[in-house]
Amino acid sequence: MKTLKPVLAGLALCLAQFGANAQPDTAKIVANALSFADSLVKSDHFEQWDAYANLVPLSVIKHYGGKDGYIQSVQKVRSNFISSIEEDAPTLKMQTLLTQDNQWQCVIRESRYIHRNDKKVHIITYLVGQSTDEGASWRLFDVGYNRVANIIYMMPDVFGDLPIPEHVVISEADELAAAQAAQAAAAKANAKAAPKKVAKGK
């Protein structure tokens, strides 16, 4: 019985370490996904089409009949996303990260400003990502180059509860008006929430 206690203690310690190690490092998974998303965006910007296609899910490539078919489709649509001047790099932000069936999927928000016909517009699009190696590497595609309704055909194993918004294009005037309306609504809400002073009796 004296030798049993150290064995049980050692087993408990091993199980505790295994449980700790089994927890996914979501911060690292998010960082990996954003890194691959950045590579996709840069490959698009510099028209490095072979590298771009290698970052896209295989099911999406297959849907278009191969790399050439997918690249040709992207090239036709991307003219709506090209600026007439050099712009700042887009910002990428993880919006949704889910895991099930031994894979991870995500939606990354991409925000960029471009100039079109001498007018500034804000484009918000979304990258859908998939990882089958516990988040170490990712394949992604830009839903702005298609429609969200078609994703089920391009990526049949997409999670049903993965929220994927359509891309939007906002003019500078509309964005300014929306910001002013939000400020006015916030000011009104703060005014209502402010405590009323009670007049002191004489």
Any overview of this molecule?
The N and C termini lie far apart (84 Å). A hairpin with a 2-residue loop joins strand 1 and strand 2. The protein has 202 residues and is α+β, with helices and mostly antiparallel strands. Strands 1, 2, 3, 4 and 5 form a five-stranded antiparallel beta sheet that branches. The protein is globular, with a radius of gyration of 24 Å.
SSE layout and pairing:
Blueprint: H1 4-22, H2 26-45, H3 49-54, H4 58-63, H5 67-77, E1 91-100, E2 103-116, E3 119-131, E4 139-142, H6 151-154, E5 168-171, H7 172-193
Antiparallel strand pairs: 1-2, 2-3, 3-4, 3-5
Summarize this structure briefly:
Strand 2 and strand 3 form a beta hairpin. It contains seven helices and five strands, in the order αααααββββαβα. The chain is an alpha+beta fold and 202 residues long.
Number of strands: 5
End-to-end separation in angstroms reads 84 Å
State the low-pLDDT regions, or none.
1-20
* Classification by helices and strands: alpha+beta
Fraction of residues in helix: 40-55%
Strand content: 15-25%
What is the chain-wise order of helices and strands? HHHHHEEEEHEH
- Mean pLDDT score: 85
Rg, nearest Å:
24 Å
Count of helices? Answer: 7
Backbone shape: globular
Largest sheet: 5 strands, antiparallel
